[in-house]
Amino acid sequence: MEIIERLKERIKGDAVVTEIAKERDPFKVLVSTIISARTKDEVTEEVSKKLFEKVKDVDDLLKIDEKELESLLYPAGFYKNKARTLKKLAKVLKEKYNGEVPSNMDELLSLPGVGVKTASLVLSLAFNKDEICVDTHVHRISNRWFIDTETPEESREELKKVLPKKYWKSINNLLVLFGRSICGPKPKCDKCYEEIKELCPYYKKLKALKEVLDKYNFKKVSPKKIPDERGTYILKIKLKNGKVIKFGNHERFFKKGYYFYVGSANGKNINLKNRIERHLRKEKNKFWHIDYLLEHGAIEDIYITNKSVECEVAKELSNILEPIKGFGCSDCKCVSHLFYLKP
Length: 343
Ligand code: SF4
Prior knowledge:
Elements: H1 2-10, H2 16-21, H3 26-36, H4 41-54, H5 58-63, H6 66-73, H7 79-97, H8 105-109, H9 116-126, H10 136-145, H11 152-162, H12 171-181, H13 194-199, H14 201-215, E1 219-221, E2 231-239, E3 243-247, E4 250-254, E5 257-265, H15 272-281, H16 290-294, E6 298-305, H17 310-317, E7 322-323, E8 338-341
Antiparallel strand pairs: 1-6, 2-5, 2-6, 3-4, 5-8, 7-8
Helix pairs in contact: 3-4, 3-9, 6-7, 10-11, 10-12
The structure holds iron/sulfur cluster.
């Protein structure tokens, strides 16, 4: 886990909820975690501060009028829903738990507005228990580094197997801060720390991919400026959500993420312009398997080269990215011309 050690040397400071947790007050950790959902850190900080001046415990939360609570929670995302949830939460905490926040997973999960992510954070930060809170940042970055899962829940299970316990409580804070600043959904690898890049498997893939594009002189083009010349193209397709997609006589589950399709435009009357535009039009009559995927995914980037290198490129990409079966070509024996990269 050298990469975590190196990152710890770089990332200083605490996310808001971790800062609030220093008071070791489970009520405040629970409430601020609920406030933080779909809300920027600065807003969570401002709103929590305002709220905790007036609402210090479950009794205060029970007493406060829902409208007043709403105005204290504004401008947190979904502040009206959160006010309603917090009022329900106060009622359950008072009636079932004598005004205290329970300290085990099952009981926490039975509370209104509390899912596994919130419960894990409360257990680890407020009760100092060995738990891993997997939010979107922890899920994304740990998948880029050391696990291969589809959902945050699966990541939590996998991380418990691969991550030494000494990192369980701190990984959330570390990766939340790193994910917000550098390793976001679109990673800013050019701004990343050199020592992290050297250890990052995802960066190695992106670098190898770029090397292949450079080797064959691929350049990125806008859909409106595709030249009518022959050559090879790569479509980078983004699939927002995992989906079962039928193509030809087959069907398979396509995970959410990026797909790279390698195609060629070398026949008589066939050029890059008319071939790629046909993909872009999403025609009803599908001619290529890839067009079934394009019904659901969006072309994010188009790369072209005037070299006829479709199969060479496909073979090289199969050593870097995950080949998708069923997309091989009849001309060569390559595994596929479609490749997957996790987001
Ligand atoms: S090199 Fe890129 S993918 Fe790897 S940790 Fe840094 S930003 Fe994230």
